[in-house]
Amino acid sequence: MEYNYIKSLHLIFVITWFAGLFYIVRLFVYQIEATKKESPAREILGEQYKIMTKRLWYIITWPSMILAIGFAIWLIALRTFWLTDAWMQVKLGFVVALIAYHIKCHLIFKAHENGMYKYSSNWMRLFNEGATLILFSVVFLVILKNAVDWIYGTIGIVLFAVLLMLGFKMYKRIREE
C-alpha cells in the first residue's frame, strides 16, 4: 500500500519536473527573442520573462526535481532488487542525463539573469528536444521493462531523434517564411 502512494507522488513530481524543464527553455527562447526587439518592448518583455523564469525555476522546477528524486530513492529503498535489472540501470543513466540537462538549464538561467545570452533562440528550441528524448526513453523503459530488445529500443530512439530534427527544420523554415 505504502509503495503505491510513494510511486504516485514520484510520478506527480516527475511530471511537474518535466513541465518545468519544457517551459523554462521556452521562456529562454522568449527572453532571447525579446533582446532583439525595439525599446521599450525589449525592457518590458525582458523584465517580465525574468520574473516568470525565476518563479518557474525556484517554485516549481527545482522543488519538483528534488521531490521526484527523493521519492525515487524511497521507492528503490523499498524494492532494492530493481537495481540489478538492466532496464533500471539504463533508466538511472537517463536520470543522470536529465539531472545534467537540469544543471545546464540552471547555468543558462543564471546567465540570463545577468543579461548574458550565449545561445540563439533556434539553438534553445533544439536544446529543448533533449528533455523530450529523455522523457520518451524513460517512459518506454519503465512501461516495457525487459520486453524491448535493446537494439530495437536504440533504433527507435535514434529514429525518434531524427523525426524531431526534421520537425525542427520544418518549423524553422515555416517561421522564416
Q: Got a strand count?
A: 0
Give the overall shape: flat
N to C succession of SSEs: HHHHH
Task: Give the helix level as a range of percent.
Answer: over 70%
- The assigned structural class equals mainly alpha
- The helix tally amounts to 5
Question: Which whole number gives the mean pLDDT?
Answer: 90
Characterization of this structure:
With 177 residues, the chain is an all-alpha fold. It is built from 5 helices and no strands. Helix 2 runs antiparallel to helix 3 and helix 4 packs antiparallel against helix 5. The longest helix has 38 residues. The mean pLDDT is 90.
Outline the secondary-structure elements.
Layout: H1 2-34, H2 41-78, H3 86-113, H4 121-144, H5 150-176
Helix pairs in contact: 1-2, 1-3, 1-4, 2-3, 3-4, 4-5
In short, what is this structure?
By secondary structure, this protein is an all-alpha fold. 85% of the residues lie in helices and 0% in strands.
What key phrases describe this protein's structure?
177 residues; mainly alpha; 85% helix
